[in-house]
Amino acid sequence: MGLFNQATQIERVADNHWRASLSEHWCVGPVPNGGYLLAIMGRVLSEALTHIDPSTLNAFYLAPTQVGSCDIKVELLRQGGSTSFAMARLYQNDELKVQLTAAYTDLDRARGETQLLMQPPQVPAFEDCAELPVNDFIAITKHTHQRVIPGQEKSMLGEPQGGGQWQGWLDFRDDNPVDVFSLLYFSDAFPPPAFTLYGPTGWVPTLDLSVQVRGKPAPGPLMCRFTSKALIDGTLEEDGVLWDSSGKLVLLSRQTAKFRLPK
Hints:
The protein is mostly beta strands.
């Protein structure tokens, strides 16, 4: 079992109540990464519902979490023939930290028309892209490949390249498989695109993160593009798209975050 799968294990302790242990390996500073939390809560809902595959998830991050035990409680909203709807709430020390509303489905049974007006970015192969620097303060960089078009890595080395966009690849550094739950993590596994304008400075806490899973990923690294187009009064949006190793679009995401420069 890979490190990520170990760190997203859950335990059912009662009806509609699960427990997990948040790991220091998936933190940004002292705070567990928002996509990592989403993956844990996603696993809980997969166990709780008739339909096991995440389809649409919308999480609000009400307060920072910390490394250690947490409790996740589930409320079933509606169960239909092809879709289940539920709410999950993550608590630490009896304080509500994350609230998630989600729709779950069976991705293997998905059928219908397909039209794509966006294409994967033209980026070099995984091995030809530049690795963003590993940072002891950002533990996820030790366990996640964050590769970008050569030259973009300079934004994380004190030479902002501009553009408000990252294009490249994501993967685990060990043999942990890429599945629908790791997709939830990878939706939030790149530095904020604002760092291409300001460099790696400040604190960028996520307010909300919305994810749409469009398919189960093929094995291998994920091609990605993360873009921010508007930073207004210290609040920004970030749009993400992930394609699997076969070129299939498997995830769309959007988050809202605060951008706080050091005083």
